[in-house]
Amino acid sequence: MTETNDLIEMAESLPIDLKMQLIDRLLKSLTASQREIEVLWAEEAERRVKELKEGKVAAFSGEDVFQRIHERLAR
Is residue 13 part of a domain? Predict the structure, then answer.
């Protein structure tokens, strides 16, 4: 754990502009890029279309979905 503490102390001692760069890089490393997100959504859409075509799931109109939600909330 001392290595972690040493690293934190080093980061804390950096000038503000370098801290900002470090923070920016660390945050970017935690989140997927927009391109990665788009690829994941495309894969999910293809999976869902395949399930519909294979009859594994049923499709409902938006109107039906909102009606069911309304009925559940009215209880």
Answer: no
Q: How many residues does the chain have?
A: 75
CB 45 within 8 Å of CB 53: no
Tens-place pLDDT, residues 3-37: 999 999 999 999 999 999 999 999 888 887 888 88
| CB neighbour class for 7 (10 Å; exposed up to 12, middle 13-18, buried from 19) | exposed
What is the model's pLDDT at position 34? 84
Does any domain span residue 68?
yes
Helix (H) or strand (E) holding 46: helix 34-53
> Is the pTM above the cut of 0.85?
no
Q: Give how many domains the chain has, as a whole number.
A: 1
Q: Which domain holds residue 64?
A: 34-74
Provide the residue type at 64 as one letter: D
